[in-house]
Prior knowledge:
The protein is α/β, with parallel strands linked by helices. The protein has 15 helices and 19 strands. Strands 1, 2, 3, 4, 5, 17, 18 and 19 form an eight-stranded mixed sheet that branches. Helix 3 crosses helix 4. The two termini are 38 Å apart. Zinc ion binds at residues 95, 191, 222, 251-252.
Amino acid sequence: MSGDFECDMLIRDALVFDGSGEDPVRADVAVAGDRIVQVGPDLSLSRREAIDASGYALAPGFIDVHTHDDAAAMARDTILPKLSQGVTTVVTGNCGISLGPTPLRRREVPVPPLDLIATAEEYRYESFGDFLDALRLAGPAVNVAPLVGHTVLRARAVDDLTGPASADEIAAMRDDLDAALRQGAIGLSTGLAYPPAKATATDELLALVTDVANAGRLWTTHMRDERTGVVSAVAETIDIARRSGARTLISHHKCCGEAAFGLSRTTLAMIDAARQEIRLDVDVYPYTASSTVLIDSFARDSRTVTVSWSDPHPEMTGRDLKDVAADWGVDPSTALERLTPGGAIYHQMDDDDLERILAWPPSLVGSDGLPRDRRPHPRLWGAFPRVLGRYVRDRSLLTLSSAVAKMTGQTAAVLGLSDRGKIKVGAAADLVLFDPARIRDAANYDTPTAPAEGILRVYVNGRIAFMPDADVTTNTGTVLSA
Ligand code: ZN
Ligand code: CU
């Protein structure tokens, strides 16, 4: 009887945004197994299931190019913040931090910021491949494209993390990197702004990134400086990208602290010029607050700082750092010290820079959500619908088709995922159906874990993966290892 059907599912009369950035077309989309098999007006195919999508937008499932979902992807409820936004693929291992291989070789606890994504107990994978095997066994609900983190390699190999690595230590990192790339890492991430990687010297960086280039993989970087030094950090990134030959992605591009406001004019001009010769891209999240572990220099450059978690003082979660300091009768730096290990939300950017970077045609959208935080930055639950609601519909900063491309087709091209991020015959059937009139982020700084509104259905590899108010339990994500 299965032979009677020409397709499994027909989504009828949708406004189809194909991920290319072109204007949408009204069409039907047919899915068989895990693939899109036909796209066109008024398809008449026998099918198991038909969905009337008139009045709604259909797009390729969103690719979250910047996540810390290494551990969160293991279970459906911890990846729900992403699924419920229409995300069908997450890139893990960003900012130098990946769940495999374990950084706990010379140290018993993960040094901050490695504690952003996992506890010491969760850092249990001897190799990068062991992490991927565990992920496959768990059966993720979204597709996972995994990076390996430089800070993890550094913590494994380097004795004194506050200094440059020795030749032997660099050799050890290169061995680990080589293994991770062979086991399927799509690239290497660095987190050069963070204490355990700040001392990374050019020779260390160039050696590792050159190995990435030789393997044909991607380098993503949380640059050394995103404050007044952001211009020189971009210059360093371009220099390493050029000398290594690696495809390069600048993570969560931003200008932090009032003294840095407006510098995105300069940085985007530099990146534009460099793009004439090298493959260099940028991702961005649609908020003017950042979030990471507690770092005094970040707090000093912020208008306000909200505690997002604290191991020694969980009761201070959600409170303003200044108020905590006043309660304790100490200065904010001392309070921050006492709250560590912990994390915070730093209000420290300007709308103009954010809008300039988001509207810049090549930029990609990533959430940078922190799934382990007790009171997370709202980007975890809201980044993608916020772009489509606030910045496309409400503020007309960019068109819906270009915003969708920044979440799908453009992203897949940067990642080298040839059969994702597009609605076309033969592509993987990762799809999101949403209402363009209603889509919006409901998560904010007061209610940070509210699911987005206006997302109607999310499909991962041809199977329903999320519907609001429905009990979906199938997990059909795959590990998109290189
Ligand atoms: Zn980062
Ligand atoms: Cu990050």
